[in-house]
Amino acid sequence: MKLTFNRETLLVAFQTVATVAPSRSPKPILQCVKISASADQVVLMATDTEIGIRLSVDDIDVEAPGSAVLPVSEFGNILRESTDEKLSVAVSESSVDITGESSLFNMAFQNPDEYPDVNGSESESFLKLPAKLLKELIRRTLYATDNESSRYALGGVLLELNSSNLVAVGTDGRRLAKMEGPVEVVGAVDLGESNTIVPSKSMGLIDRALGNPEEEVTVSLSDGHLLVRTSTAMITTGLVEGRFPKWKEVFPNFADPSEINLTVGPVYSKLRQASIMTSDESRGIDFSFDSGTLKMHGLTAQKGEAKTELPVAYDGDPLTISMDHRYVADFLKTLDNESAFTISVQGNESAVLFTTEDGYNYIVMPLARDR
C-alpha cells in the first residue's frame, strides 16, 4: 500500500476514529487504527470489540491499494507534530514508512489481516433523520448521564420511539434531560421501553462522526447492537445492560405552576458571576424571583458572597429556589445566547422544569437552602 494525503485532513479523521481504540488491551492490535485503501476509497476503522467505527476519508491519492495497521499513539503524534503539509505512507513486508518533505518515520509492520473486522448487520427496519437533529439529541442529553452509577443503567442515553418522534433521555438521578424530534420510521422499528440505552462513549463518538448537518442519517437496532450510518461513517455499538429509571414519573405534575420566560444569554452571564463565590462543597445558588427581577445569590464561608440581578417578566408571589449552578449551566450551554426558555416551578422545594419550544426538557432537583 502507498498513499499520499494532506496531514491536517487525515489528522481530524484519525482523531475521531482513534477515540474508540483502548489505551490498554490484552490484544495490542486493538490499540491501533486500521487503514484500508482501494482505488476509489480510503477507510479508517477502529474497535474495542464493543464499539466499532468505519470512516471514509476523501482527497487521498492512492498510488497502490492495500491495508496497514497504525498505532494510535505513534501515528497520532506524527500527524500532530509534523510540520509537513503532505505525508506519504508506504507499507513493506517489514515496516510502515511515513515520509514528509522534511521528515521520515519507520514503524514496525503489523499484519492487517489480524485486525478484527468492523461491520454492522443490515436491517430492513430503521429510522431516518437529519444529522442536525441527531446531534441535538446527543448534545442535549449526554451531559446528564452518569457512568458511575451501580443501581441503574445511567451510563448512557436512553432512546425510545413515541409515535414518529425519537426520544432521547439522560439522567444521573439528580437531574434529567430529555430531547425529542420527528423521524421517518421505515419498517417495524422496535426500540422497546427503557431497553435501548446507548453508552455515553458511543454517543460521543456518533456526535463527532456526524458531518454535514443537512444529510440524512439512519439508525437501526439488530442483535443487541445499535447501528448508525451516514454518507461517510458507520458506527456500531453494544448497549448498556440494566434498568433505566422510570423517567416519565420524574416529570413534575404541577397543578398551578409559576412560569417564567427567560433568554439564555443574560441568565448565563449573571449565573457565571454569581457562581464565582461557590465552592466544591457549596455549589448552590439561590434564584429569587420577585417584582420583575431575578436575583442570584452565591455564598460560601471560605470565599465570600456574590449577588447579581436582571429584569424578568415575573409578577407573581416571591419565589426562591436553590439549585446547583453547574446543573443550570449545563442546560444553558447547549443553547444559543438568543434562545428563549421557560422555567416552571411550584413552590420553593419543587423540582424545576426547564423547557424550550423545540422539544427540549430539563429537570433539576432543588437543593436545601440551609447549605
Essential attributes:
single chain, alpha+beta, DNA Polymerase III, Chain A, domain 2, nine-stranded antiparallel β-sheet, eight-stranded antiparallel β-sheet, elongated
Quick structural gist:
The protein is of the alpha+beta class.
Q: If you had to describe this structure to a student in words, what would you say it looks like?
A:
The chain has helices at 7-18, 72-81, 131-139, 200-209, 264-274, 325-333, and strands at 2-6, 32-37, 42-47, 51-57, 60-64, 66-71, 86-91, 95-100, 104-108, 126-130, 156-162, 165-171, 175-182, 184-186, 197-199, 216-222, 225-229, 233-238, 258-263, 284-290, 293-300, 304-311, 319-324, 340-345, 352-355, 360-364. The protein is an alpha+beta fold. The protein folds into three domains: 2-114, DNA Polymerase III, subunit A, domain 2 (DNA Polymerase III, Chain A, domain 2), CATH 3.10.150.10; 126-248, DNA Polymerase III, Chain A, domain 2; 252-364, DNA Polymerase III, Chain A, domain 2 (Roll). The chain has a nine-stranded antiparallel beta sheet with strand order 6-2-3-4-18-17-16-10-14. The longest helix is centred in the first third of the chain and has 12 residues, at 7-18. It starts with a strand and ends in a 7-residue tail after the last strand.
